[in-house]
Specification:
343 residues, alpha/beta, Metallo-beta-lactamase, Chain A, 7-stranded mixed sheet, 5-stranded mixed sheet, 10 helices, 22% strand, globular, binds zinc ion
């Protein structure tokens, strides 16, 4: 498929920690992340006398210091009114508990994302660690990669803060009135189970979080607590549905990289990418394979631990998607571990 053309109206991102206006009444704030993907975009939406905050960055000293500086500087005259978190990943929800308490504001989230955050915070507990270790071994991961994945699972607890004990639930089809503007709530699956997106139809603004990104294919991963889940099926379902709900001419305000126009074309590209990956998985799996053995064949370049965890989860997502549709079959090997091969 030929590459689709995207337009980037803001050619460069703002300086870290320095909000800039990216659309009327919308500030774009960028915070750093200590990963290969080294930043997250946060948006501040004009909300009457203050600002609604969309996402938070991870829980680390640097992000807290930036927030303190932003609250004391650019936001000093107009205090935060509410916090909306799009999904459970730590770069989005990491400082939710801290920020809600610090600013005395309510947290707004979808129910599944609120509960999934609580679930992943449990992953630092011994029963979860043991269950995950067994799952990774069954998939054929070596000891070093297993340790890296366990570190990732346990690390979630420290990259996030305790969520407020109550929250304002939003769901697909709801409408949020923010500063007199009408934002439709849409939810998407695959990258996260009930990821929140906000569409302001009148102003042609689409706050897409991680559902659609300009340069990266959003990670779609199977997690150990749902080993047979089909997040890729969920993701492709959302990609198929969004063009019918969101006009192509919106300015997409994503959580990573630059804002862009060309939403529908980008969704077609992402679908095409996953079709090609399924084809590649089928080619690799002519013979029965442990799921972990597929990863280096699909991702031949050297990956750090964080990238390996994404690559492994994504490979499983493709395998599960194909198993569900009968494009692959699973069989037990002599050691009792599950192998998969193309049907
Ligand atoms: Zn995410």
């Amino acid at each position: 498929m030929p590459p689709e053309t995207l337009a980037f109206p803001a050619p460069a991102p703002p300086e870290l920690g320095q909000p800039v206006e990216v659309a009327p009444g919308i500030l774009w704030l960028r915070l750093a992340l200590p990963f290969a993907l080294n930043h997250v975009n946060i948006y501040l939406i004009e909300d009457g006398a203050g600002w609604a905050i969309l996402d938070t960055g991870i829980n680390d000293a640097r992000s807290r210091a930036w927030w303190e500086a932003v609250l004391a500087g650019p936001l000093a005259a107009r205090r935060p009114t509410r916090l909306i978190c799009t999904h459970f990943h730590p770069d989005h929800v990491g400082l939710a508990g801290w920020l809600a308490e610090r600013c005395g504001i309510e947290l707004t989230m979808s129910r599944t994302e609120y509960l999934t955050t609580q679930l992943h915070r449990r992953w630092a507990e011994p029963p979860e660690i043991d269950a995950h270790r067994a799952f990774y071994a069954d998939c054929g991961l070596d000891e070093a990669t297993t340790l890296a994945l366990l570190e990732r699972d346990i690390g979630y607890r420290w990259l996030t803060t305790d969520l407020p004990p109550s929250y304002h639930r939003i769901a697909d089809g709801d409408v949020l009135s923010i500063g007199g503007r009408r934002f439709e709530v849409l939810t998407g699956g695959g990258h996260a189970p009930e990821l929140v997106m906000l569409l302001c139809r009148a102003d042609k603004l689409f706050l897409a979080a991680d559902q659609v990104l300009a340069k990266i294919s959003p990670n779609v991963s199977v997690w150990p607590q749902e080993p047979a889940s089909d997040p890729l099926g969920d993701f492709l379902h959302t990609l198929a549905e969004l063009p019918m709900r969101v006009p192509d001419e919106v300015l997409v305000l994503p959580a990573h990289n630059l804002p862009f126009r060309g939403l529908h074309g980008r969704m077609r590209e992402l679908s095409g990418h996953h079709d090609a990956r399924c084809q590649a998985v089928a080619e690799v799996c002519a013979e029965p394979m442990l799921p972990a053995a597929i990863v280096p064949r699909l991702f031949p370049r050297k990956l750090d631990a964080h990238q390996t965890s994404f690559a492994f989860g994504e490979t499983l997502a493709h395998v599960n998607y194909m198993l569900r549709r009968g494009w692959m079959v699973a069989e037990a090997g002599a050691d009792g571990r599950r192998r998969v091969r193309a049907a």
